Amino acid sequence: MEALAFLQRKTVPRHAIYVLSGEEDFLKRQAREKLLSALVPSDERDLAPVVLPGEQLDYSTLRNELDTLPFLTSCRVVVVENADSFITAHRPALEQLAAHPPPTNVLILEVKTFPETTRLAKGLPDTAKISCKAPPSYRLAAWCGEWAEHRYGKRLAPDAAELLVELAGSTLGVLDQELAKLATAVGQAESIGVADVQRYVHRSRAADVFRILEAIGAGNPAEALSILEELFTEGEDPLAILAPLSAQLRKLAAVARHVSAGQSLSAAMDAAGIPSWPRARQNAEQQLRHLGRRRLSQLSHWLAELNAGLKGGDPLPERVQLERFIVQLARPRT
Q: What's the whole-model pTM score?
C-alpha cells in the first residue's frame, strides 16, 4: 500500500507486524505516527513504543520485547529502525513470527527495501506493507495538492502547487513545512493560491538554480554568474549547487533525445518530467532553443566530467570549474 493512501485511511486494519519500506523518512514518520495513534490510546502513547536499532539487534532481544506483557498500556509496540540487515540475518525466524504472531503486541519494521518476492513479504497482508517512497518529480505538485487537502484541509491551486515545488524544492518534509505555514497564513480561507505562495514561501537552493537556468536560456552569462556568486557568498558548496543544476539539465537532454526519436515537444517534456505549468514549459523551451542540439547531446558527458572535477579530478578551484561550466552553457551558440 502506498503511504499517502494509507495516511488518508480513516481506519487502520490491525496486524501483528507492519513493514514501512522506502527511502522517504518523512513518510515513514507520518506512517509510524498514524499506526501508533490507531494502536494505542493517546494517554498511553508515550509508554507504548519501544524503539530498537536494527543494526545491532539480535532476534532473542526482539522476541523478549514482543513477549513482554504490556505495562500500563493496552498494547506494547516494538519499532525496529534500519531493519534491513536484521531481516536478512533472521529471515527464517521472522517468517515463523509472521505465521505465529504474538497475541497482544505489535512489531513495526522500518527498512529501505522489502522485496515482494520473499516468503516474509508474501506472508503479510497488503495493508501491513506500507511503501514510503517519494513521488516522482512530475507528481510532486499533485502530491502537494493532495497533502494540503488531507493534512491541512486547504485546496491548493495547481499552479500554486507547481510554484511551491519550484520555490521549496522536492524534499517532502520541507514541502510539508511550507504547506503548514501557508495553511496558517491564509487563516479561514479555503484555498491557497499563487499569490499566497509568492508572499510566504522563500526560494530554496533549487529555486536559485532555476534562476541560473533562466539566465542561461536567455543567453545572459553575466546574470547567471551573478546568481552563482550570490550562492557562493551564502556559503553554498559547489557540489550542492551542481546537484539540482544537473537534474534539470539531464531533463533537457532527455527532451532532446525524445524529440530526435520523433516525439512532439510536449510529449517529450512529459516523458522527461518537465512540470506542466506554463512558465516551466516556456523556460524549458527557451533553454532548449538556446543550448542547441550540439550542446544538448554533450550535456551528460560534461556533467560527469564536472562532477569528477569537483571531487578532486581537476586542479582548478571548484568555484572556477562551476563558473566555467555556466559560461559554456550561457554563451551564444557558435
A: 0.61
